[in-house]
Amino acid sequence: MAKPGLLVDSGALIALANRRETANQSVNRVWGDFFGELVTTWPAVTEANHMLPDHLAPVLLTWLERSALARFGHGWCGAETVRSDAKVC
């Protein structure tokens, strides 16, 4: 049986990384109970990093890098591609 997917936009990514966001607890509660695949896109990650305070952008990238759930657009990206400008998934 296939795992369910959860499409995540930049707002949820921002709330995940920033404890001061009002949706932070809700996002953590939903993702804490979720057993499927997190599906997002490079534009959502880019927007989230642009909107986050400078000190929190690396927090989001590190979480995505370590998460086995992260899937970007056209296929799976390994941890090495999350921070690489040279590789595109």
Explain what you see.
The N and C termini lie far apart (26 Å). A 3-stranded parallel β-sheet has the order 1-2-3. The longest helix has 10 residues, at 24-33. It is globular and about 40 Å long. By secondary structure, it is mostly helical. It has 5 helices and 3 strands, in the order βααβααβα. 47% of the residues lie in helices and 11% in strands. The protein has one domain (5-82).
Short description:
The chain is mainly alpha-helical and 89 residues long.
List keywords for this structure.
globular; three-stranded parallel sheet
Task: Compile the SSE list and pairings.
Blueprint lengths: L4 E3 L2 H8 L6 H10 L3 E4 L1 H10 L5 H10 L3 E3 L6 H4 L7
Parallel strand pairs: 1-2, 2-3
Helix pairs in contact: 1-2, 1-3, 3-4
